[in-house]
């Protein structure tokens, strides 16, 4: 094993033209004084700066912006002023920063006599800043303006985010002066607010006084016009603020209604009396029964009836006495009927009288209607004049109210500024500039980092750290490939040690560190993937007649291959890393076994077994079978179910006729579940195809592969006809025909960590049988390096069956639903091809992808 480790150490060296970090470190150590000396000088300069620079103290105050009203009354209908918004607060910030306010503060505090602001000496630093246009008042400005510029330069005003508070800060060399100035700004700002309110109130009072005088005259004129027009039109106002004509019309209407009621009542009573008279019961009418005469006659009749009954016990009806009493009874009845007839005639007379009154009132009402209609036009004009007079009076009353309010606010104590001080400035105890410790530390660190960078740049551009191989350098060892012939290979005798640099067919150096070649050579039964002309500097003896190559299964079962031990997982992982940093245009790196490139004796002796490994017919492994155990069956279906459950969308998974159906929106969740599963002894091979003809699968394949790779898992996508969008790149077709190596066929997706094997310049179906038979060998080699191998097959019924036999799982994409006949048929075909673990992804867009993302080399 020692020689192999030696080669591994040589592989770790930087390639020609790359930066050697060890050499770079030694070069920077040689330049250490150019790193430490500037750092020390900058540190000393920083210490001198913080010690010699005059300290500045900062004082701050806070002002709350709000609408404040004094004790003056507010109009009844006037709403309170709204609270200031962000624009209003920003306006107040600009007001505090205005030069007029700065001049006021300078004048109030007599800052022009303060040495800090009145000094005429200009430092060198200020001159440099002024020359560069970055700071400093010009000397040609008047003295007062220079003082104003200095004061404005030390002022800082800012709004506190999310509040209506404005912060005011001022910096000066004297802490007491800084507090004095910041409080002076606050007082001047509040005074300006009060003066502005006072001036506004004075102007309002003056304007309202003039307008009130004019409005009084206009109100008098408008009300005079109303009264004159009313008198001229005869629209005199009666009770209830109505005109006389309207009142007459109403009274006549009421009288007419009463007369009609009386007429109807009299007619009804007369008719009722006539009715009871015809029935022979006149005394039953209420009006007749209430008559005194009828009541007396009824009483006499009752007495006479009693006497007739008494006499009738002893006398016969024809007795003179009985006949006399009967005659008296008939006379009483006649008198009652006469009295009832009198009542009926009286009620009929009342009805006729009421009817005459109704006719008279009706005629009078018609006349009143005509006069009222004539007065309506004049009433409209009268109402217009009244509205004008009323509006003038309302306006006068409003202005009188406002005038009284403005007069009440003439007192200066009644006017409050629209701001309130919530924190006044106080003298600071510690300077804010310079911060001695942080300044020295940052300056020292910055100088140290810049010195390191300068030393590194000088060393790199000086050429001391660039790696260059001479002719005597040791090139990386070559990879060992397998035999291309089908005859059993006997154990090879010990060969001399492999030279460090071996010539090849194209006279180039071959890097052994490329992954897939080593992985490809370690299969138990494999076939060569390079043409004989590219495998060695010496031409292999050709057979007299061309012999057709057997299938992969035949090659596996009939070949006996001598190969080194299976590489450890760490070695296989390193091969994938080499594919990451390898440009796609590099030369091929896989060598076929040849007598000119034997395995070194040391390397053969260092293997675990003292004898070469022989793969017999019983021990051979079928290259077409996926390296998945029986326990792995159903892993992708379980991951799909777990993805639907963990995504909080259990309705997105559907079980139909032994089919696992999942919404395509859960592709990322499915990928996360697959990435979280522990690594097995080999890669999980997944074939992706569409149920319907022309259904794209690259979107789902891209998202599945990129999501799995984002979790640190090694993923490679192989295009066997599904299309990954890489264009005309070297890929699977060249790899199967032997025109390219793994290093040339494997590309890196720039948008993710996924490795890609494009389709190549030919479709898989157009390749010959021998090239197609090597697919299982290629997939077996990839399975030794990667955790997941994803095949994108063409869409359509039966087009993925050939590739399904090499995979342990399948993803079937359908845009028609789980119950669709095409989907069910494609699902059954995959199951029949030997894939027990099939998941159906349902898409809605018909494009076969949940998004527009695709892998690109």
UniProtKB/TrEMBL annotation:
Keyword Amino-acid biosynthesis in record: no
Residue spans crossing the bilayer: 34-57
Chief localisation class: membrane
Region (Disordered): 486-508, 529-627
Coiled-coil parts of chain: 358-406
Compositionally biased tracts (Low complexity): 548-563
Bias (Acidic residues) ranges: 600-610
InterPro entries listed in its UniProt record: Bact_polysacc_biosynth/exp, LPS_length_determ_N, P-loop_NTPase
MF terms in GO: protein tyrosine kinase activity
GO cellular component: plasma membrane
Domain Polysaccharide chain length determinant N-terminal, chain residue ranges per copy: 18-109
Cellular localization per UniProt: Cell membrane
Keywords (A to Z) from UniProt: Cell membrane, Coiled coil, Membrane, Transmembrane, Transmembrane helix
UniProt protein name: Polysaccharide chain length determinant N-terminal domain-containing protein
